[in-house]
Design brief:
The longest helix is centred in the middle third of the chain and has 35 residues. The protein is globular and about 70 Å long. Strands 6-5-4-7-10-15-16 form a 7-stranded mixed β-sheet. The protein is built from 11 helices and 16 strands. It is of the alpha/beta class. It is 42% helix and 18% strand. The protein binds 5-S-methyl-1-O-phosphono-5-thio-D-ribulose (MRU). The site of 5-S-methyl-1-O-phosphono-5-thio-D-ribulose has 18 residues, from helix 2 and strand 9.
């Protein structure tokens, strides 16, 4: 099995998701700015994986800092955190990881007496914390899988969108983790993967990852989903999330909302699998979730080749918001949340 991201002596090593499925190559980021650029360019993507990368990027920046005083180190921490925070706005795991690293940083500084000890301890402790975020994420995904597997049919076809698999997380996956757990429990699950225009995470990443794991997968284009649902070919839809608001509204890859509406129309359950680090209780509803607008060139071109007339206007919102009324259940590491979401999601954190 591949490793999505890992901490090495040389830097932060990640599988280059822009090159899959043609090539399985790894990139080592030796500077926090390189980690930030890898997140921005989607060398690494998927909300939980972005969170892990953010943690490792901060650890790398602080480890390599030339700061001679604690004040200098603190200022540098903020520069690093700011650079990392400006990469992708929607996935809340990024900000969750930055906050967690800042808290550990401050706590570590406070626990030491001398300036030298403070700086040395902070450097070591942040590397440890980043690795902890990775290890926890894998365990969290496995727990999500255990809770979600029971929701899937004994035999049937499950539709997923984008990539919410091992590639989008520290490993195992959220939505694909639920599918993996169901398959491991002996269920006969087939997966339909939406290709996921325009970045093709479904075609390039989900299809690659599931095929590698010998889970039967059929690729469809996004606009085929309604057809298969209407003909009884889909028994459940399961997706990940980039941010879940306090009321249960779900921001996920563009096209998710369309699927949720189609699922309701066809009486198919629509599940969202996500860790607590994706739930943002400070955002009251989906209207407040910032939606990343990426380059229209990702719509008008593929691999540098134009697929539309030159100079044509195009838009590229990378995410949409599914109102909570379309969500059958949210699967987390602490169990399921169903409507009424405001109370149920809050209770998961208790
Ligand atoms: O733009 P991406 O590829 O980072 O978007 C990823 C998604 O929308 C995933 O579905 C989401 O992050 C959940 S990943 C477990």
């Amino acid at each position: 099995m591949f490793k999505t991201i890992e901490w090495t002596e040389d830097g932060v090593r990640m599988i280059d998701q822009t090159r899959l499925p043609a090539e399985e190559v790894y990139r080592t980021c030796r500077d926090y700015r390189e980690v930030a650029e890898a997140i921005r360019a989607m060398v690494i993507r998927g909300a939980p994986a972005i969170g892990v990368a953010a943690g490792m990027g901060i650890a790398l920046g602080v480890k390599d800092s030339a700061a001679r005083t604690v004040a200098e180190l603190r200022a540098e921490f903020e520069t690093i955190a700011d650079t990392i925070s400006k990469t992708r706005p929607t996935a809340v795991n990024l900000f969750w990881a930055v906050k967690r690293m800042r808290e550990v940083f401050e706590k570590t500084l406070a626990a030491q007496a001398s300036e030298t000890d403070k700086r040395a301890a902070a450097r070591a402790r942040l590397v440890e914390e980043a690795q902890r975020i990775l290890a926890e994420d894998i365990a969290v995904n496995q727990a999500i899988g255990r809770h979600g597997a029971a929701l899937l049919p004994e035999a049937g076809t499950v539709l997923t969108h984008c990539n919410a698999g091992a590639l989008a997380t520290g490993g195992y996956g959220t939505a694909l983790g639920v599918i993996r757990a169901a398959v491991a429990a002996g269920k006969k699950i087939k997966v339909f993967a939406d290709e996921t225009r325009p970045f093709l995470q479904g075609a390039r990443l989900t299809a690659w990852e599931l095929a590698k794991d010998n889970i039967p997968v059929t690729l469809i284009t996004d606009n085929m989903a309604g057809h298969f649902m209407q003909r009884g070919g889909i028994q459940a839809v399961i997706v990940g999330a980039d941010r879940i608001a306090a009321n249960g509204d779900v921001a996920n890859k563009i096209g998710t909302y369309t699927l949720a509406v189609l699922a309701k129309e066809n009486s198919i359950p629509f599940y969202v699998a996500a860790p607590l680090s994706t739930i943002d209780l400070n955002t009251s509803s989906g209207d407040e979730i910032p939606i990343e607008e990426r380059s229209p060139r990702e719509v008008t071109h593929w691999a540098g080749v134009p697929t539309a007339p030159e100079g044509i206007e195009a838009r590229h919102p990378a995410f949409d918001v599914t109102p909570h009324r379309y969500v059958t259940a949210i699967i987390t590491e602490r169990g399921l949340a169903r409507a009424p979401y405001t109370a149920r999601l809050k209770a998961l954190f208790a």
